[in-house]
Structures are given as structure tokens and as C-alpha cells.
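Lecture notes, part 5. Sequence design as translation. It can be helpful to think of inverse folding as translation between two languages: the language of shapes and the language of residues. The source text, in C-alpha cells, appears below.
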């Protein structure tokens, strides 16, 4: 890329002006300059989202080998999206675009701006507070509500411009308990509700656009508040910083177009950017499965999903949802390589054996422009460990404590908030045993899977539950006006049961179909025609439903076709279309969804490229390969700090956040036991910060 030319693919990138779930008012557009070309933007856009919407994926090139650089995490955790904005190096994913801004690609090492005059040294502001909460996601907000409602003075710090954390990206309905964690409600709506509750508490102060930098030995926390450095002295610290996505080593893993699920959801669900045309997913946990569904909602073709385990680790209802919409799912498979020059053009996958080694001859290559990596999460726990080391009273909530679902994070924050209020003497109320029991239920892994339970009844209206795995979920029990759906109250992981009889019967209100987070309930109505009953199916695609008379393909839970049917009609219930079709009696109760994607989308292309494993990049910041690190390990290195000195792995801008776990994995692959390995010494600051901030200079001062 040169300063005079920006490669764009207008066909691949665009705004999502009609999303089935999210609405955004497109007003007051403006423009800024990138590499000499005009880029349109809207208020609230960060630089990276505006560039993506304009078709720009490559933001610069690495100074070491000229490799193209783009986004990876879109969450401020790495430094792959570096650009030069108005003369300053910034992360494109964390910096709001401004009218007239001059942005340049990061080509080579950035030059320091000239010092026009000496900076004015100001006293650094110091704040004292009873509880400092790091993170404004589900855990941090829930804790703030418990503390603030009991009169505890709280300072909540978040690096984004709105509260909610990952909730602002979650357009799907949540599982869990309706009574405890708003199950059946969409994540974006839960985030807005929690943020509103916090805003009404007079004792809770919120700092947005503010980044916690470090916990120091004198038990103060350094915070960069909109460019100004502040030292916060809390009596207690609550770390609710969430998680960062794990990386994966394979050939081409740093090409623009390879990025995490969080980055994808940020682009699609928050900023309404159609971030791809053809997407391939690595990882069958809930994050990867949900991201695939979100892609389909955005009109993106999902070419396929690979999972190294024999079964997807996420909820089966999420997996079934993708399958019955036409997405091929390959278990016991892994990614071998992403191919392309300055962007992803295709991906090669292969089957793996019981030891997760690729099986020669099973390679298949698929054409795609984006590879989404969703292979798990690591807690952002640097602040927690530092606080414990220095004796600052600290607690953790949400993913910073234990990786689990967002519903579990909500309840985790609730418990931590009450515990801290007790320690501060603001309440004598103990944490109820029922809270702790619910917390364990919400954190639990998927339970037993049973065969699909097809009811025998074929008269009146019959609800069919296509969920067949024990997970914490009970919204359907709360909406049935006849109280005909039951789940064991002592353990909401049990499967729902339809309890007709004693003068009660389903009236066909369709409320259970609309509220199910897994889109796993259908209604079969035999009242008009027992041989061709009417089936109600949930659908969350497009601004409109398929028009009456449209022919659609009906699929069962495994994605197998049950044939075509004609749409009779539909109605909308809180952003979900309830589509009615007529089916033969033999197929009616097996119908689980409507095919959204043509199965030909997932067809592999001929030929497969062989990757060279040692060429795979482990350290993104310093472009250090697996081969370079393996050579150190084989030469006897057992200290990650020695490897850092020899190769610069972990010495880059992100501070080893993405490569540390990968280096540890290489040690394991080389047969080196974990107890033989010395971990990297962590940096005193966990986030990059301009030196001027420590001198008291802010963004509005020189």
C-alpha cells in the first residue's frame, strides 16, 4: 500500500442499513482522509469500522517483513490495527473517527512528532474511592448496582464509549433463568437495562473512554482518563475486565481477514458493517456458533465451520441452528492455512486424528474472504494478580474470575457486589445460598444429550421441543398463559416438558416459539387439517418474512431437508418472525427451521495448498515464527525471557498478550513439561500509553 492508493473492494464491504435485530439512525455523515483518499463515516464510528465499511482491510505493513496488517481483536488487546491519526500512532479499533482527521497507514516504525514547545508539567490528579470497578460489562454493571444501591461510593472505569461490554454485541436472546438473569431477553437489551440502572445510582461514578493501566506496589491504580493520567486509591478493587480471545498458529494466520469472533461481532452487530462476503469459522464453542448465526443475519455466506473435537463444545441448540440453516459443520477438523497476498482469499482444512494431528489426504480448500478464529478465551486477569501481589484488597467477577456465559457473569457480579458491601460494613445481609446455587448452575457446562423427543399427540395444538441437551434455560416456562410447560425448579438445566391434560390445552399463542433463545420450539396445529397441519417456525432474518405463497425448504434439527412447503403467513413478535407453513403429517413434528443458505455455498474448491508449519507466525507484533521458537526450545531454552531476548517474541506493543500462550503450547508440543518452563516477566504497565500522559499532558494540551 502506498500513501496515494488504498485498495478497496466495494462489492465486499458495505453498511448494514436493514439488520433484522439492530437499528441505527444514519445521520450527520462526515469524512476523513486515509492515505490521501476520502473515507465516509458516521458519528460513533471508530477508524477501523469506517475503513472496513469503505472496503479497506489493510491498514499498513509490518516494519520487519512488510506483512500486511489489519484488525485482529478490535478490543484494544493487540496492536495489529495501528495507524497514524493526525500524526499520532493509535489503535484504529479504539479511536473514534473525527471530521477532517488525517489518517495514514502505519508503514515502518512511526516517527516521533516534533517537540514544538516544552510540555507543561501538571500535578497528577489523585482520587480516593471505596470500590474501584474495572470493566463496564455484565459483571461490572451488576456489581455496581449491588454496591450503589447500598450507598457505597463506586468508580467504574471502562475503555469503551458506552457501557455493556460484550452485551452490546449480543443480538441473540440469552439462556439461563428468567427470574435471575433476564433469560429470553436479547443481550443488547440487557446491557441497556443494566446501564440505565447504574446511571440512576447517585453514588456510582462512571468514567467512559478510560483505560486502567496498572496496579502499583503502593496500592494505587493508574488510569488514563481521556488522555489524562489519574491515580485512583481504592479501598477495594473489583476486576471485571472480561476475557481476551485465544490465538491460533497456522500458515497465514496474520493475513488481513483473519480475526477473532469479538472483532467480527463488533463490526457487524455494533457498527453495522458487512464485514465479509464469505466467512469460514474455526471453533465450535458458543462464541463461534453464535458468530456464525450473526453472520447469516447480516447477509454473509458462512462457508463452513471446523471444530477439532469430535463434537462441538457449544450448546447443541446453537449448533443445530446453524446446521438447519445450511451451514456445513466439520467436527474432528482443523485449519491448516489461510491463503492470499494482502488479504484472505481461501482456507485449507483437514481432518485430525485422536491426537489432533492432521490426516494426510483429507485436505480441502474453500474460497472465502474472512477466517473467524473462535478457539476459546483467556481471562484478562493482570490487574487481579498484581493487586494480590501488592496486598490491595481485590475480588474478581465474570470472565476475569472464570470463563463462562454472560448470564453467569451477571450473577457473578451480583454476588461480588454484595460481598464487597458486607466487607465495607454497608450491609449485614449474607449472600443467599440460592444465589450461590444459581451461580453454579449458570456456570455449568452443557450436560447430557438425549434423543429428540417427538410427542405422540396429533390433535389440537402441540408444542415440539427440539432442544435435547441439558443447559440452564427456562424462558419458555414463564410465557405460557396456560402454564403447560414445566422445568424442574430445583435445576433449570432439565429439559422442558409439556404437561397437557386436566382440562388445559395449548391455545396456539406462539409465545414459547418467540421467546426460545435457541429457536428450538415449534407449534404443530392439527385443528384445521390433521393430514397437513400448520407448523409455526421461528425466523430472525431480514426486515420482512417470506411472503405468503413463497416456497421454502424445511429442515430438521440436523439440517436434513424435509422437502419444500408454501408459506401461509407470519407475524412479528419482538424482532422474531413466526412463520406458518403447511406440511404433511409425517414431517410436521420433525420440522425445526427454514433453510436460509444455499448448500452450494459450502462446496470446497478443487486442489489444496500444503502449508509449512514452521512459517506460521506466533508473535504478531514482532513477526516471530513457530520455527524460530522451536529452534530455541530444541537448543535447550527453558525460559521464555531468554526466547524473548533471542527472538523478540513477546517484546511487541501488546506485551505478549497473544503469543505467551502459544509459546507455552510449543513447549508442550516439544515434550517439555510445564514445570520446566519459566514464564515471561510481565510488564509493569498492561496497556500502551503515551509518555506525555505521565507528565500530566492530556489530549487537549501540549
Amino acid at each position: 500500500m502506498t500513501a496515494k492508493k488504498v485498495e478497496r473492494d466495494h462489492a465486499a464491504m458495505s453498511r448494514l442499513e436493514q439488520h433484522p435485530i439492530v437499528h441505527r439512525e444514519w445521520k450527520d455523515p462526515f469524512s476523513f482522509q486515509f492515505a490521501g483518499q476520502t473515507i465516509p463515516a458516521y458519528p460513533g464510528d471508530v477508524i477501523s469500522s469506517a475503513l472496513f465499511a469503505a472496503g479497506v482491510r489493510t491498514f499498513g505493513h509490518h516494519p520487519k517483513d512488510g506483512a500486511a496488517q489489519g484488525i485482529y481483536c478490535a478490543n484494544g488487546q493487540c496492536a495489529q490495527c495501528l495507524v497514524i491519526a493526525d500524526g499520532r500512532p493509535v489503535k484504529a479499533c479504539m479511536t473514534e473517527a473525527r471530521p477532517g482527521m488525517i489518517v495514514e497507514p502505519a508503514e515502518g516504525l512511526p516517527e516521533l512528532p516534533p517537540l514544538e514547545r516544552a510540555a507543561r508539567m501538571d500535578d497528577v490528579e489523585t482520587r480516593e474511592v471505596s470500590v474501584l470497578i474495572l470493566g463496564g460489562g455484565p459483571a461490572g454493571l451488576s456489581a455496581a448496582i449491588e454496591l450503589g444501591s447500598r450507598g457505597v461510593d463506586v468508580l467504574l472505569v471502562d475503555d469503551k464509549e458506552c457501557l455493556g461490554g460484550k452485551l452490546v454485541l449480543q443480538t441473540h436472546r440469552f439462556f439461563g433463568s428468567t427470574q435471575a438473569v433476564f433469560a429470553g431477553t436479547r443481550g443488547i437489551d440487557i446491557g441497556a437495562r443494566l446501564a440505565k440502572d447504574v446511571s440512576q445510582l447517585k453514588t456510582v461514578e462512571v468514567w467512559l473512554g478510560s483505560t486502567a493501566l496498572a496496579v502499583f506496589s503502593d496500592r494505587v491504580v493508574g488510569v488514563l482518563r481521556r488522555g489524562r493520567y489519574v491515580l485512583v486509591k481504592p479501598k477495594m478493587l473489583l476486576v471485571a475486565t472480561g476475557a481476551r480471545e485465544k490465538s491460533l498458529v497456522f500458515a497465514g494466520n496474520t493475513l488481513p481477514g483473519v480475526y477473532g469472533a469479538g472483532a467480527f461481532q463488533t463490526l457487524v452487530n455494533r457498527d453495522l458493517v458487512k464485514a465479509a462476503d464469505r466467512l469460514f469459522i474455526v471453533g465450535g464453542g458458543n462464541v463461534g456458533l453464535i458468530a456464525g448465526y450473526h453472520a447469516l443475519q447480516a447477509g454473509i455466506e458462512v462457508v463452513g465451520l471446523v471444530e477439532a473435537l469430535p463434537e462441538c463444545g457449544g450448546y447443541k441448540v446453537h449448533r443445530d441452528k446453524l446446521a438447519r440453516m445450511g451451514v456445513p459443520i466439520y467436527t474432528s477438523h482443523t485449519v491448516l492455512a489461510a491463503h492470499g497476498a494482502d488479504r484472505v482469499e481461501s482456507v485449507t482444512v483437514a481432518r485430525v486424528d485422536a491426537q489432533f494431528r492432521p490426516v494426510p489426504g483429507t485436505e480441502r480448500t474453500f474460497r472465502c474472504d474472512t477466517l473467524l478464529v473462535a478457539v476459546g478465551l483467556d481471562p484478562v486477569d493482570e490487574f487481579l494478580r498484581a493487586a494480590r501481589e501488592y496486598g490491595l484488597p481485590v475480588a474478581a467477577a465474570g470472565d476475569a474470575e472464570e470463563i463462562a456465559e454472560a448470564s453467569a457473569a451477571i450473577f457473578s457480579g451480583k454476588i461480588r457486589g454484595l460481598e464487597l458491601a458486607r466487607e465495607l460494613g454497608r450491609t449485614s445481609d449474607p449472600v443467599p445460598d440460592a444465589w450461590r446455587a444459581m451461580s453454579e448452575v449458570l456456570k455449568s457446562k452443557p450436560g447430557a444429550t438425549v434423543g429428540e423427543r417427538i410427542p405422540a399427540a396429533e390433535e389440537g395444538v402441540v408444542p415440539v421441543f427440539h432442544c435435547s441437551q441439558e443447559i440452564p434455560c427456562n424462558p419458555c416456562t414463564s410465557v405460557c398463559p396456560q402454564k403447560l410447560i414445566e422445568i424442574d425448579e430445583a435445576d433449570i438445566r432439565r429439559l422442558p416438558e409439556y404437561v397437557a391434560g386436566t382440562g388445559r390445552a395449548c391455545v396456539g399463542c406462539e409465545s414459547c416459539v418467540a421467546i426460545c433463545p435457541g429457536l428450538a420450539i415449534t407449534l404443530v396445529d392439527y385443528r384445521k387439517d390433521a393430514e397437513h397441519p400448520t407448523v409455526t417456525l421461528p425466523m430472525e432474518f431480514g426486515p420482512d418474512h417470506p411472503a405468503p405463497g413463497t416456497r421454502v425448504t424445511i429442515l430438521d434439527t440436523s439440517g436434513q431437508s424435509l422437502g419444500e412447503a408454501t408459506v401461509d403467513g407470519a407475524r412479528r413478535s419482538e424482532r422474531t418472525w413466526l412463520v406458518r407453513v403447511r406440511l404433511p403429517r409425517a414431517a410436521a413434528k420433525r420440522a425445526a427451521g427454514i433453510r436460509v443458505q444455499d448448500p452450494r455455498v459450502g462446496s470446497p474448491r478443487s486442489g489444496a495448498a500444503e502449508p509449512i508449519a514452521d512459517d506460521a507466525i506466533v508473535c504478531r507484533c514482532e513477526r516471530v515464527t513457530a520455527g524460530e521458537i522451536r529452534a530455541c526450545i530444541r537448543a535447550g531454552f527453558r525460559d521464555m525471557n531468554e526466547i524473548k531476548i533471542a527472538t523478540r517474541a513477546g517484546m511487541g506493543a501488546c506485551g505478549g498478550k497473544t503469543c505467551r500462550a502459544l509459546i507455552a503450547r510449543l513447549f508442550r508440543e516439544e515434550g517439555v513439561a510445564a514445570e520446566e518452563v519459566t514464564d515471561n516477566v510481565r510488564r509493569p504497565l498492561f496497556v500502551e500509553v503515551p509518555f506525555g500522559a505521565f507528565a500530566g499532558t492530556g489530549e487537549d494540551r501540549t
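The translated text above is only one of many valid answers, since several sequences can fold into similar shapes. The longest helix spans residues 406-423.
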